[in-house]
Write a structure and sequence with these properties.
45% of the residues lie in helices and 14% in strands. It has a five-stranded mixed sheet, sandwiched between helices. The chain has a two-stranded parallel sheet with strand order 3-4. With 262 residues, the protein is α/β, with parallel strands linked by helices.
């Protein structure tokens, strides 16, 4: 299946080689990320079995650092993506950070970054996200920006509009510890930090899909996602500091499905 997304800022020659170049660059970079996150830092991944290996899968995560999408994507699909390249997630990314010069822009394209204009109210980027998700997987941060406190702020309706348009499998993701690895304002990752990445069970949202597609419905859907992420982040933090075991966290993730639909 050909992915319906095209980088409109690139020409025909780029797109001809793009499936190969992004496969090679993404997986070579992933090897470096494995060293950074799992050897030079101590990262723990829990709940990977909650991830479907199929197109139209949306990972919604809290946001702590500028490189969150890399650890989430790596933890989710590195390995399976070698034989199923479409599993490498699309990542909407701020133009001012990831497309500010030619080299960064080329590298960001290889990592399947979708440029988003400053201000984040970018309808063109929103339509690109909807098209890209149909052919693969995607990471979105419903808060829209990094948290300065580590707490999860209010969500924005953009992620809800993407969900209502595509009806993907929606997986809640929580990360904790990335503020220690790359605090806001830092240029280089710090080492020997403890990071947790937790994938929850897919979120049930049929009640919203049955309504008229609107900004209000999208916001209500995102509000539900934020509630799920806040509860999951609390458990993630408790596991990270040793208040609960990894087994207890896994048991919480596996709790009765009725609870996850509330």
């Amino acid at each position: 299946m050909t992915e319906p997304y095209r980088a409109g800022h690139r020409g025909r020659l780029f797109h001809f080689f793009w499936p190969l170049t992004r496969y090679v660059v993404a997986h070579l970079t992933a090897i470096f990320l494995a060293i950074l996150f799992f050897i030079l830092n101590h990262s723990t991944v829990i709940g990977r079995r909650n991830l479907p290996r199929r197109r139209n899968t949306l990972l919604l995560s809290n946001h702590q650092s500028m490189i969150d999408s890399f650890i989430v994507g790596h933890a989710a699909y590195f390995g399976p993506s070698i034989v199923k390249p479409f599993l490498v997630p699309w990542n909407p990314a701020a133009e001012e950070n990831f497309f500010r010069n030619r080299f960064l822009a080329w590298w960001a394209d290889q990592w399947k970054c979708i440029p988003v204009r400053p201000g984040r109210r970018d309808l063109k980027a929103l339509h690109m996200m909807i098209r890209a998700l149909r052919g693969g997987t995607m990471i979105l941060f419903p808060e829209g920006t990094r948290s300065r406190t580590g707490r999860i702020g209010e969500g924005r309706p953009g992620a809800g509009l993407v969900i209502l348009a595509n009806r993907p499998v929606v997986v809640p993701v929580t990360i904790d510890g990335m503020r220690d690895v790359l605090p806001v304002g830092s240029a280089f990752p710090r080492l020997f930090k403890r990071v947790y990445v937790v994938f929850g069970r897919p979120i049930e949202y049929s009640e919203f899909a049955a309504r008229r597609r609107s900004k209000e419905t999208a916001q209500q859907l995102v509000d539900k996602v934020i509630r799920v992420l806040r509860e999951q982040l609390e458990w993630t933090r408790r596991a990270r500091v040793g208040e609960v075991s990894k087994g207890e966290l896994q048991q919480w993730l596996d709790r009765d499905e009725v609870e996850t639909k509330r």
